Amino acid sequence: MLILGINGSPRKGGNTDILLGYALQGAKMAGASVNRVNLGEYKYSPCLSCDNQRKDGKCIVKDDMEKVYSLFNDADGIIIASPVYFGSVSAQLKMMIDRFQCRWSAKYLHKTIKRDKSRTGAFICIEASDKVSFFENSRSVVKNLFVTLDIDYSAELLCAGLEKKAEVLNKKDLLSKAEKLGADIVNIIRR
């Protein structure tokens, strides 16, 4: 079993990075193999809305997203983590999500893709303020991706009031919840 973690934060050693690490550790302790993508280290363009797009769900743009597509295809479970920026997910994550437009078009317009395997997903979201609506916006974006990729949205960890870098290390309850989320995803897949 492979769990893929997607870190949408460009900040190394920040709260998002740390919580995703704990979630992947929980998945590993529950018996899964894990893989991690730090989007801030990848070089990829935003969706170019290509006129000559393929009908099989594969993007014609050749960049680091090819690695991401491959990792998504191999994963049994996906954990996406993002900070809230301006009321939604980070630009790095949104750019990655938009690059799945090729998959959306193949599924809904061309009807060339069928559900191939059952997968499970989770979302970890961190924000500095206490505006619940920011979580709603971020959650909606991730849920839309999961629906397009036939990933069941099965768990979430929403953490408000975390502004300082690595502040979450002082919040043992959140670290435990992240670790449990990772283990829960593995256990859901096993059912």
Characterization of the model:
With 191 residues, the protein is of the alpha/beta class. It has one domain: Rossmann fold, CATH 3.40.50. Helix content is 41%, strand content 19%. The chain is built from six helices and five strands; from the N terminus they run E-H-E-H-E-H-H-E-H-E-H. The chain has helices at residues 15-29, 65-74, 91-98, 101-109, 132-148, 172-190; strands at residues 2-7, 33-38, 77-83, 119-126, 151-159. A five-stranded parallel sheet has the order 2-1-3-4-5, with helices on both faces. Helix 1 crosses helix 6. The longest helix is centred in the C-terminal third of the chain and has 19 residues, at 172-190. It is globular and about 50 Å long.
Question: Descriptors for this entry?
Answer:
191 residues; alpha/beta; 5 strands; Rossmann fold; single chain; 6 helices; globular
- Oligomer class: single chain
Measured as a percent range, the helix fraction is: 40-55%
Q: At the first level of CATH, what is the class?
A: Alpha Beta
- Rg: 16 Å
DSSP strand tally = 5
β content, as a range? Answer: 15-25%
Report the CATH architecture.
Answer: 3-Layer(aba) Sandwich
Q: What topology, given as strand order, has the largest sheet?
A: 2-1-3-4-5
What's the number of domains? 1
* Tally of DSSP helical segments: 6
Give the N-terminus to C-terminus distance in angstroms: 13 Å
Shape: globular
Mean pLDDT: 96
Please state the structural category: alpha/beta
Give the full name of the CATH homologous superfamily: Flavodoxin domain
Under CATH, the topology can be stated as Rossmann fold
Largest sheet: 5 strands, parallel
Q: Point out poorly predicted stretches.
A: none
SSE order, as H and E? EHEHEHHEHEH
